[in-house]
Amino acid sequence: xxxxxxxxxEAIAExxxxxxxxxxxxxxxxxxNELPAYMAKRLPEIGGCFLQxxxxxxxxxxxYGASGAGARVMTxxxxxxxxxxxxxxxxxxxxxxxxxxxNIVRGGPGLGGIQPAQSDYFxxxxxxxxxxxxxxxxxxxxxxxxxxxxxxxxxxxxxYRNPVMLLADGILGQxxxxxxxxxxxxxxxxxxxxATTGHKGDRPRNIINSLFINAKELEDHVNKIYRKYxxxxxxxxxxxxxxCEGADLIIAAYGSTARIAKSAIEMADKAGIRVGLIRPIxxxxxxxxxxxxxxxxxxxxxxxxxxxSKGQMVEDVSLSIEGKKPNYFFGRTxxxxxxxxxxxxxxxxxxxxxxx
Amino acid sequence: MQEERxxxxxxxxxxxxxxxxxNYALRSLKQYKKVILVDxxxxxxxxxxxELKEELEGAGLKVLMPNFAASSVDVPSxxxxxxxxFIDKSAKVIFDLGGDGDGARALGVFNQxxxxxAYRMFYVVNTKRPLTSRPDQIIAMKESIEQTxxxxxxxxxxxxxxxxxxxxxxxxEGQAIVEQVSRQTALPIAYISGEKSLLEELPEDIGVDLLxxxxxxxxxxxxxxxx
Lengths: 356, 227
Known about the structure:
The complex is a heterodimer of chains A (356) and B (227).
Chain A: E1 4-7, H1 8-18, E2 23-26, H2 34-42, E3 49-52, H3 56-68, E4 73-77, H4 79-94, E5 99-105, H5 121-125, E6 136-138, H6 143-160, E7 163-169, H7 170-174, E8 176-179, H8 215-235, E9 239-242, E10 249-252, H9 255-270, E11 275-280, E12 282-284, H10 288-295, E13 302-307, H11 313-321, E14 327-331, H12 340-351
Parallel strand pairs in A: 2-3, 2-4, 4-5, 5-7, 6-7, 10-11, 10-13, 13-14
Antiparallel strand pairs in A: 1-8, 6-12, 9-11
Helix pairs in contact in A: 1-2, 1-6, 3-4, 9-12, 10-11
Chain B: E1 6-11, H1 17-28, E2 35-40, H2 53-58, E3 62-64, H3 84-87, E4 92-97, H4 100-104, H5 111-116, E5 119-125, H6 135-149, E6 155-158, H7 168-185, E7 189-195, H8 196-199, E8 210-213, H9 220-223
Parallel strand pairs in B: 1-4, 1-5, 2-3, 2-4, 5-6, 6-7, 7-8
């Protein structure tokens, strides 16, 4: 298919439709509104269902219901709206249901602002909702990658019967880029024999449930889903490394920030400073091995984590490099976007030993 | 013949009308002493004229924008000083109207002024946008904008582009589609717009005025490279 020019929010919606998602439940919030607006236009044309729920809480529970009935389904929101969905997400994980949740992140806490941010990293990767559960978190840095990850995300969700989140800052939701929707080979996914589609007297009743009153039964259930998480950690890690060979300093950044960091890296190159980039594409499972490997290299003297937050992923980077090298942090928050010049300034400070 | 004092740039969101409005306004400074650029976009939260206010006013434009723009509050309201665009008849005024029919609603409140003064309304088309890739879609979008803005499109601009991946053949492909729209609606194609180097590649006998533009709104990682 030929390339078209799309806004990130629209492209994510179209990618979901092309991945076979015909059901969308959501509630409006800036800066992701083009996504439900696109779904509202397109889904009725293909016999799907777009429904603007009365709240985010209602929307996520509609996702729970549709997924329980075996449908490919998604919802989208932005930070404060995602907080409201957290109870539902925990129920979906507890009930082992697949779905895609899109968070086009804006500044927080509270109502915060409408400008782009990455301050929902903890919420996305460390729980957010209650209980022992994990969610696969995919972090695109271009609109093309967002499209590809949406399609993969539905497959990952189905394969492991677990919610998947696409986490993108507001820049990616709002900016426009050329994008191509590639025809994909259908992957072999197990039939959803667990779905509540009506047993018609031919099979035992299917029940979607996250309630286990007996402590031992709940422990067994949690251990069972954690065995899936081990599989995910082994097989689903995605990461991009750039310019790391021979680098004195490695930047850790994801999403739009990684693109700004690349501009800073090019500027550093011209100033004779060799800087690399490790860009996690899956924020959970986190690419620990990649960070550890580069931390063990002699030429790498230090790490600099750059985020549009007060420092959240920086903790996972530190855990991964196990104290082998210092890990500095630079961030802007509240919707302020760091500039390539600012990042270059931090690179020079770290390299010159003036960062404490 | 003198061009109308009031110019409106409208189109589907992502058609490039904001870039065109900025470029046209800056170009108008050569002919007119006072040029007002009115950002009436109530649809897009980021990547808007308001973010460039300082730079554009430095270049000699007067920029008027909704109260919420660049304030991080997403409740659009139009400030009273926007009326100055209609009252001060010495100024050339260029309106950047928000995307689609929804965005065009912002112009409705000024309807009485447009009824009493001639205007020119450019409908900016990018056929690489999936919802305006066919003549029927382009015409439907135009009608929806006309309905909510209560104004009539007077001209079409072919601004077909794939951002930084645009080739001259994309512009020509768009031109063929826009020509069909022009025939069906009897609206003239005022310009083909695009980056200067691309427009130079177009055939000389294309028969439409060219409007070369520079890009002002860029993502943060592209801003440094051009400094």
